[in-house]
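Re: weekly structure request thread

Next one in the queue (235 aa):
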Amino acid sequence: MNLILLREDDFLPSGLAKVSPRQERHIRSVHQAVTGQTLRVGVENGKMGVGTIISMEEEAILLEVEWTEEPPEPSSIRLILAMPRPKALNRIIQDIATLGIKELHIIKTWRVEKSYWSSPVLSPESLNEQIRLGLEQGRDTVFPTITVHPYFKPFVEDILPVISEGSLKLVAHPKTETKAPRTIDQPVTLVIGPEGGFIDYEVEKFEELGFQIVSLGARIMRVETAITVLIGRLT
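Done, posted below.
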């Protein structure tokens, strides 16, 4: 945990902040902090700064907070992701929050199993918890927006043309020899499919919208690996 990310309701009428039980355990066991020590802090969707430990009573740590800086610049990549395995989604949400992605669309494709859509990992509570963990790792405070689209055709025909306008449009797909570009200095809409890849119909729908089909070479990667490699390559 590289940042203590506070909620608005963590602040007491006195102006001091009371950290959550999870953060309290981390501060004691990992930071091995003492009264008077300062920690990096931030408030959800707000500024960052330093928090001075004022009190370390049993199961309650109080911080006096001073805001000193804005959160880091967001990534210029908008991510469109076919719904992955639920266990993988938790790790992916943390990773994209750490990497500064601020817009994620989770979509249905042919090879996405129907059972995935009933998974509790898609609940707002679960998504927000994974986002918080990723933001704390990456020292950021701004939550990404995550939108779930359970139907492919309405998303591609009605929503994707609007949100991708003015950006470089890329679809990661292993069945092409065109390599993904590097170090892009413009907004990017990046589409990543399921581990089995997109079917031909889906690829054609993306191409109709002006998306370029690109790959990372001959090796077939897990979705969570491909995401971090592509984002690192593009930035």
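Residues 4-69 form a domain with the Ribosomal Protein L25; Chain P fold (CATH 2.40.240.20). The chain has a mean pLDDT of 95.
Next request, please.
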